[in-house]
Amino acid sequence: MGIDWSAGRYEATGEMLLPVSELVVAMSEPLAGRTVVDVGCGTGNAALLAAARGAVVTGVDPAPRLLEVARQRAADRGLEIDFVTGEAAGIPLPDHSADVVFSVFAVIFAPDPGAAIAELVRVTTQDGTIRLTSWPPEGPLVVINKVVGQFMAEAMGEQPAGANHPKPLGWHDRDELRAAFAPYGFEVEVERRSLTFTAPSPEAFLATSSEHPMAVGASQALSTLPNSAELEAELAARLLAATVELNEDPQAFAYTNDYVVVTARRG
């Protein structure tokens, strides 16, 4: 089953990830007068930043609620942005319509990476740029996700995610991405950066994280089990233990996670 990105309150996560959108947009300047498509725009971080720099922007996302949040944020700033419903594997825009295509921690969730890449390429102009971000397969975020994944597999009586399934595309991996984009004549470069997540305490960080759509989905799955309250408490305890161990700031909470910025252009 896919992720319901309208569930919970992704706004909190969007705030944490804003510095990444700021970097991606800065790397793409000048943007004035250029057409920009933000694929998986969520609450609109990259779309808003690009529009504020004079770009003609379209934001695409499958989650109706997040699109409404993005529209309201644009209206509050006096920015004109066209926000439309769509998937990465079916971008509702004409061929070669974007000078710059962004996807900040979004296309990496596409169920069919090949179809998503084909669509990113299709909507990009001949001399355009695709710029996306992804997480590497190590770091605090992976540790936390493994805690949840293993617990959910135990609770639901299932194999852990990935067991007996084909290896997904490594959206962080330069060689895999070059192979995926090569049939379209695109060259790929990958840069590694880092992002620090902060909160007043580990408990406060987990409270915010619990609003993420993926966390809400896990909670909803546990609620279908007869001992759901006990399971929720056990998962919370495991997450707190992992978060405390990862904490870099004894006076509050912080952890630093690497991420990659992928830039693809026609050769």
Strand content: 15-25%
Shape, principal axes of CA atoms = globular
Number of strands: 7
Radius of gyration: 19 Å
Approximate helicity band: 40-55%
CATH class: Alpha Beta
Q: What is the terminal-to-terminal distance?
A: 37 Å
Tell me, rounded to a whole number, the average pLDDT: 94
Strand order of the largest sheet: 3-2-1-4-5-7-6
The string of secondary-structure elements, in order, is HEHEHEEHEHHEHHHE
Number of helix segments?
Answer: 9
In short:
With 267 residues, the chain is an alpha/beta fold. The protein has helices spanning 10-27, 45-52, 64-76, 113-123, 140-156, 174-181, 202-209, 213-222, 228-246, and strands spanning 35-39, 56-61, 82-85, 98-104, 124-134, 186-199, 253-266.
Structure commentary:
Helices cover 42% and strands 23% of the residues. By secondary structure, the chain is α/β, with parallel strands linked by helices. The chain has one domain (10-266): Vaccinia Virus protein VP39 (Rossmann fold, 3-Layer(aba) Sandwich). It has a seven-stranded mixed sheet with strand order 3-2-1-4-5-7-6. The longest helix has 19 residues, at 228-246. The two termini are 37 Å apart. GO terms for molecular function: S-adenosylmethionine-dependent methyltransferase activity. This is Methyltransferase type 11. Keywords: Methyltransferase, Transferase.
Which secondary structure elements does this structure contain, and how are they paired or packed?
Elements: H1 10-27, E1 35-39, H2 45-52, E2 56-61, H3 64-76, E3 82-85, E4 98-104, H4 113-123, E5 124-134, H5 140-156, H6 174-181, E6 186-199, H7 202-209, H8 213-222, H9 228-246, E7 253-266
Parallel strand pairs: 1-2, 1-4, 2-3, 4-5
Antiparallel strand pairs: 5-7, 6-7
Keywords: Methyltransferase, Transferase
Organism: Kribbella flavida (strain DSM 17836 / JCM 10339 / NBRC 14399)
InterPro entries: Methyltransf_11 (IPR013216), Methyltransf_Superfamily (IPR050508), SAM-dependent_MTases_sf (IPR029063)
